[in-house]
Each structure stands twice: as C-alpha cells, then as structure tokens.
Amino acid sequence: MVVRLIISLACVVFSYLWPAPLSAEPPSHAMMLLERVIDGDTFVASGLKIRLWGIDAPERGEPLYEYSRLILEQILQSGALSCAPVDRDRTARVVMHCRSDEADIGALMVRAGFARDHVRYSKGFYAEEQDAAQSAGAGLWN
Predict the structure, then answer these.
(1) What's the CA gap between 125 and 21, in Å, rounded?
(2) What fold does the segment set 29-141 form as a domain?
(3) Chain centroid offset of residue 117 CA
(4) Dist. CA 116–CA 135, nearest whole Å
C-alpha cells in the first residue's frame, strides 16, 4: 500500500515537471501582471517565475547585467504584458513567449543589444535582430 502511494505521488510530481508537448497551434497569450524583474531574461508575473523563450541575457556579475535587467523592466512596464507557455527549463521556471502591447519582448531585447539570440532553443528565430544589434554596435556588441 505504501509503495502504491509513493508510486502514485511520484507519477503526479513527474507529470507536473515534465513539459507538455508543443502543439501545431501556437498557444494563445494570456494577460500577466508583472511583479518583479530578476534579470534580462527572467521575471515574476502573476505568481510565476518566467524565463523568456529564445533569448539569453547577461547573468548577475557579467558585463551589462544591470542594464539588461533595467531595459527588460522598462519594456515590461511600458505596455500590456501577455505570455504564452512554451516549455519548462531545468530549474522548473516556465519558459514563455511574451509580448508587450503586441511587440515581441525577446526581439526588443535582442535588437537593443541587451540579450542574444539563444540559438540552441530558438533555432535562429532572433538572428535578424541580433545581426542588427551587432551592426549597430549596440549593448553587448559595443
């Protein structure tokens, strides 16, 4: 009986942590309420710790960390925030594609030069924005 209970509990925990498969239809964006910004690609909104899909921003202690965090904060506060779930990362953060007043937040961060296209996950989705930032010598490419 105890073994069945442990197995059942393990199945519930595992199903919660395992990312749902992506469907052919992109998930719809839901309105979110910003609570705080952690760094240039992570923030808390509507009770969730959210990692922006497809970008990689400087971490604490790296050059331009604080600028990147402040730019993301400004973008998130500038319009209506909406996000759609994409995955979960290895630290159990929800990975989401987010917009501010219909503008792709990842694209804005990369084009401003305060995040990179995270090709491993985005498959080059933000390559054009990164090329523009590098050409302009913006942010990380200054």
Answers:
(1) 19
(2) OB fold (Dihydrolipoamide Acetyltransferase, E2P) (2.40.50)
(3) 12
(4) 14
d(CA 99, CA 44): 14
Dist CA 142 CA 96 (whole Å): 28
CA distance 58 to 55: 10
- 36: closest CA among 73, 91, 75? 73
Q: How confident is the model over 81-110, as pLDDT tens digits?
A: 999 999 999 988 899 999 999 899 999 999
Residue linked to tokens 């973008």: 75
Domain locations in the chain?
Answer: 29-141
pLDDT digits (tens, 9 = 90+) for 17-74: 334 444 444 568 999 999 999 999 999 999 999 999 999 999 999 999 999 999 999 9
- The tokens describing 61, both together, are 């202690």
What's the distance, Cα to Cα, between the start and end of the chain in Å?
63
**Residue whose tokens read 């600028």:** 67
